[in-house]
Amino acid sequence: MKITIIGVNDQFPQFSEEVTLEINSSHCFAGGKRHHDLVKSILPDNHNWCSVVAPLESLIETIRKSSENWIVFASGDPLFFGIGNTLKREFPDAEIVVLPTFNSLQILGHKIGINYGEYHVISLTGRSWKVFDKALIEGVERMSVLTDRKKTPASIASRMLEFGYVNYRMLYGEKIGGDEERILELTLEEALSLDFKHPNCFFLEKTNETIPVKGIPETDFDPLAGRPRMITKMPIRLTTLALMQLNQHRVFWDVGACTGSVSIEAKLNHPHLQVTAFEIRPESEGIIMRNARKFQTPGIQLVMGDYLKVSKKELAFPDAVFIGGYGGKMEKVLDDVNKYLQSNGVIGFNSVSSESLNRFLDWCSHNQFEITQQQQIQVDDHNPISILVAQKIN
């Protein structure tokens, strides 16, 4: 099977004689509605068109059942976060020919005269916020962003403003290369009310060097009402996270998040982490979200309710877990954590009493966990805190 993937933009395509001959001799075509509108006048009368809509399973199944060669029309460069990568992965034995044109970000860069090679490319087309959030927290100065119909310029600007990333300007383009092309320089506030059309993309440029604060004093967090001391102190928090070596892990659970201080610090210092915070107190939901916004920390997934009762089947399983609270059920919480913790994953634990310390050590010895770190720290006039990290060795 041969699959030819042809990149087009928003103008009527001018194909080479060789490509025109291949189109004229083909029967099976695929592409989006916009692509069909552009090329339908040059397709053979008896052509079969398969619409490309997300998810792509229907298209893939149609091609897989076919014995004919296919021509697939795509936007710009089909290998630039495009359908070409999916087709190469799904049809490894097929002959795949890619005929690209400039992608939308390249054309926009040409139009406004910038060195687009200096911009960190982020595709939000059919993707989560994870990579974008990471770039914001890391303080990336220049970004080029591909959008879709859910993650629009307005929704992206809204997320940035919600979490305090006000120090960017947007260089926006829509229907690039076509008759309805529009290019604008916008503040994020202006982007909120933009009457935009698809397809669109934009560049983000920092307007000042502000970056999120790390190593946050506990007094700066919004506290639990009437319980201002119920928070992991900064030296304890930072030491625990450092000893857990989160740079080597990918999925972090914070069990008993309370104010969200540990989740926030983990995400700020390790933006690659997928962070999930569990908390039973209903009033903590607003507190955690306020603190996340206050300290510019998007991307924390919050699961409210009793940790032992909430469903975790749809969550990414952790390779690092911090036990911030267990409601008098330490062993039951640890047993449940152990069900989901990946092999060689770690548990971080803080103990204020010899009783809880010994219970944790006893549980570890009976469940094939090795204590890899154990330190004791005293902050001001507070009781000494034992900081432990245990690694799953089965």
TrEMBL record:
Entry's Gene Ontology molecular function annotations: protein methyltransferase activity
InterPro entries recorded: 4pyrrol_Mease, 4pyrrol_Methylase_sf, 4pyrrole_Mease_sub1, CbiE, Cbl_synth_CobL, Cbl_synth_MTase_CbiT, Cobalamin_biosynth_MTase, SAM-dependent_MTases_sf
Keywords: Cobalamin biosynthesis, Methyltransferase, S-adenosyl-L-methionine, Transferase
Chain ranges of the Tetrapyrrole methylase domain: 65-191
Pathway field: Cofactor biosynthesis; adenosylcobalamin biosynthesis
Pfam families: TP_methylase
GO biological process, one term: methylation
NCBIfam families cross-referenced by the UniProt entry: CbiE, CbiT
Name the UniProt record assigns to this protein: Cobalamin biosynthesis bifunctional protein CbiET
Organism from which the protein derives: Marinilabilia rubra
